[in-house]
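Box 3.1 — From sequence to structure: Platelet glycoprotein 4
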Amino acid sequence: MGCCNRRCGLIAGAVFGALVTILGGILIPVGDMIIEETVKKEATIEPGTIAYDNWVAAGAKVYRQFWFFDVQNPKEVELGGKPVLMEKGPYTYLTRFLAKENITFFLNDTASFLLPQAAIFEPSMSVGPEEDIISCLNLGVAGAYSLLPPNMLEFLTSQGKYSLFQRRTVRELLWGYKDPLLFGMQMGLFSPYNGTYDGYYNVFTGKDDINKVSQIDINLGFWNDSYCDMINGTDASSFAPFLDKEKPLYFFSSDICRSVSASYEQTLDLKGIDVYRYSLLPTTLASPVDNPDNRCFCKNMQTTKNCTLAGVLELSTCQQGAPIYISLPHFLHGSAILRDSVVGLNPHPENHKTFLDVEPITGFTLNFAKRIQVNMMYGPSDVVTILPLVWMNETATLDDETADMFKNELFGRINMLDIIQKVMMGAGAGIFVLCLIFYFFARRTPPSRLLYVPL
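Predicted structure (token representation):
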């Protein structure tokens, strides 16, 4: 009887172990479903979610760093010499620290908002004060080339009334000054900025379709073309969850008045969190000869050499006619003629490319560097030169507190579920195997016999 009970117990143990193993296996797809639904809920833009809190106000500090190109030989350039440039910077400002305003939710699962703009100078992160003097192109004179007849402007400059170059403070060049040539008009590379708004924007909340979350739902009117006026993707602060590294990410930048795409480059560790790094492709600002998608961005046949010039994007259509050209810093990936027209540029991919580090499960951007260069066209009627003025690095990364929140609140739950699954499968398999082994030996062992000793 005891032998039977022992064998039955071993059989029951084996069955129990098998059931625990099966249950652990079943928890894998069930757990994945739970995780997926949780992430989708928290990635939706609606009050009470993690995505909403990060969307309303950026948790990480966003900085804009500026490097100016100081012209070392302005007199020689006015006589036809090649500009010699010296990079000065960074001059750093805290930006995008104000929460979105006028947030309105609509029945079609979209939300509209305005993004207030402000900049606070950060002396500890700068090479000098805002009063540092920069020798640079006269913005009024350069801008007037597109407004006044060339002969009139050449006459004014030849009379010494106005110079092609000027000396201005960092603050004036960035945020504005009154220009005498343009009758006191406010001039500045980013003027007006403080007290203004970026937007109005309308984005999908993801409530009806999580794959559309944060995508911008408006069109531009700058390019007079249905393709170039489309806004594809988000504002790059977040994307739809569960990234597929084989697919590019699309985002819109108001600084360059167009949408761009970034492709997967590598997986990195950011404060203990795996992130996918996405970078702009060299073809982003390629000439239409190499990238036909850029044809509708090419508007000036003369300055772009019949749309064969690579590496610059003319923004006059969205900058009130000003001859502004955007490029990557130091004309990275641009035509050689752009760099050869000046002295002092040294493009380097790691220092001058734009990239995003995105957490692949949630789609949240946890680290980024948006790098662009502002250039202006200048020159008399028979010569056209695109001169670098300043390049900007807008950057932010998650702080330690946010990193810990991600690891504890989200990944902690995922890891705990994974551990439970593995423990159940391992323990169940172990119980099952041990019970079978003992059952096998129990069957081979003969029952013990009792010896009776006579008294």
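Summary of the box: The chain has two domains: 12-59+399-443, 60-97+119-194+219-389.
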